Amino acid sequence: xxxxxxxxxxxxxxxxxxxxxxxxxxxxxxxxxxxxxxxxxxxxxxxxxxxxxxxxxxxxxxxxxxxxxxxxxxxxxxxxxxxxxxxxxxxxxxxxxxxxxxxxxxxxxxxxxxxxxxxxxxxxxxxxxxxxxxxxxxxxxxxxxxxxxxxxxxxxxxxxxxxxxxxxxxxxxxxxxxxxxxxxxxxxxxxxxxxxxxxxxxxxxxxxxxxxxxxxxxxxxxxxxxxxxxxxxxxxxxxxxxxxxxxxxxxxxxxxxxxxxxxxxxxxxxxxxxxxxxxxxxxxxxxxxxxxxxxxxxxxxxxxxxxxxxxxxxxxxxxxxxxxxxxxxxxxxxxxxxxxxxxxxxxxxxxxxxxxxxxxxxxxxxxxxxxxxxxxxxxxxxxxxxxxxxxxxxxxxxxxxxxxxxxxxxxxxxxxxxxxxxxxxxxxxxxxxxxxxxxxxxxxxxxxxxxxxxxxxxxxxxxxxxxxxxxxxxxxxxxxxxxxxxxxxxxxxxxxxxxxxxxxxxxxxxxxxxxxxxxxxxxxxxxxxxxxxxxxxxxxxxxxxxxxxxxxxxxxxxxxxxxxxxxxxxxxxxxxxxxxxxxxxxxxxxxxxxxxxxxxxxxxxxxxxxxxxxxxxxxxxxxxxxxxxxxxxxxxxxxxxxxxxxxxxxxxxxxxxxxxxxxxxx
Length: 666
Hints:
This protein is mainly β. The protein folds into 4 domains: 46-187, Jelly Rolls (Sandwich), CATH 2.60.120; 202-347, Sandwich (Jelly Rolls); 362-504, Galactose-binding domain-like (Jelly Rolls, Sandwich), CATH 2.60.120.260; 523-664, Jelly Rolls (Sandwich). It has 1 helix and 40 strands. Strands 1, 2, 3, 5, 8 and 10 form a 6-stranded antiparallel beta sheet that branches. Strands 11, 12, 13, 15, 18 and 20 form a 6-stranded antiparallel beta sheet that branches. Strands 21, 22, 23, 25, 28 and 30 form a 6-stranded antiparallel beta sheet that branches. A hairpin with a 4-residue loop joins strand 26 and strand 27 (448-454). The protein is elongated, with a radius of gyration of 36 Å. It starts with a helix and ends with a strand. The relative contact order is 0.07.
């Protein structure tokens, strides 16, 4: 049976062969030519697409079938180029004359397919007057088609004659690196600012909103537009301003004349991004009417940081000029100190005190709790002159005392009997340049006075006066006499005051009621009702507050056990997403430590940033503050705290108590 089948198959195969030889059939061969179009219209802006538009012949580039007719390039034909061995081998397109149409078509495009990853540079050069210009793009080298674009619109008026392409700039090879290329085209230049209306609250963003001249309008601007020297972080703009300051002149400045009075009724916050190589003070001043000035410090170098100057106090003052003094008041720089600036604008003032209920045991913290009025506005709100130690508040009160008057005073009238049944200890923080007596007095009922001494100069210190014996005395006024009873001062002796408040004598514990409390995700943890994120390895378990005090009356706190033998042992929390620092960017937390050590705070997961501080007060709860306003938008997702950071002189079980870890408004 098997033999018969084989025989039949052989006869059939022989028959078929004979049939093909006697009656052959011809089939068309599938073939392509680079250009199947007849009379293709020449587009001079297409240098070469290796098909119908070969308007610039590329020597040493072989026209081949597209090895990958998918994705962004379905052309049948492309170019094949083998890069030279030299690190700066380049392919040069020499037009022999100024490149045509570049004034209107200044964006060079090229498609590339290669397995080589590296930096591709494209350069315009040649010509009689134009300065060479080069732009970069990163080639991924994943063997797929990539589109790369180089915008030369800034130099579109140049008479360039050559286009130079470095496919793997600065890297030598064996002379075997293959690049498939296609669609070398100059595209129309599109004005990115077309259709964008002027926003006159923006002085200049050095791009589309250049609304006011910076400097003397009869001369060249003092802040010419240049390329951003460090794109990233909070500033990815292509263009910024470059201001050259005479650092040997203490009051050299950058002045902007807005001509008309600045409307600060809604937008009273002057903001500016600065990139500086040195830490210097910056003075922002509004003038032309009743001048108002605000100071800030450049604390971080070689990165873009946004600084905010609160000009609420300048509303209605008629000022029409903005003046910026870099390294203001100093003459220790050079004649050509450079500061890069961007996004100078007036922005909306966001009231940080909205929703915060009044605590009438607080006379004034000169921020959100300004619950009573000082006679004759004798302690106006000013910037804290020394944000350190016991007082890192942004705002404080400034009291000017007539030191030639023994009983000149700071007085507040409560207008009714002040309740001292529970909150009976007067606390007041003072920053003074001299050691003087301080008298605190209650009056309006049965008076009571207590003498104290300002014994710390050049720093903040909290002074306490026990008025528990005055409970029920019906007093309605509080009076503070600085250098009380003395007349050996001047008529303008200055004392800074803050956090004038009444607290319980024992500052007893407050047990939180968490019923109905909604999560506030700007709070990492208060170890009571707001435990919104998890610490890695549960490294800060909740424990009872070991030292209830006026500075921290919480029932519960976190206990972090640090390996003091490990310089970088840390307390870490992962937010699981980007930390929103757009408005609340001041990291604050309380620490109770038995030793004075350095403390490092760090945010990471994006463009990392770190700020150092020092635990200087031991065996007391102290609140520390770290300004991360410059890290908004940097994509960071983690917060890390290093206690005794960088040191290995501790023990394997050093304990730090922490509380109220949160991000607040500036």
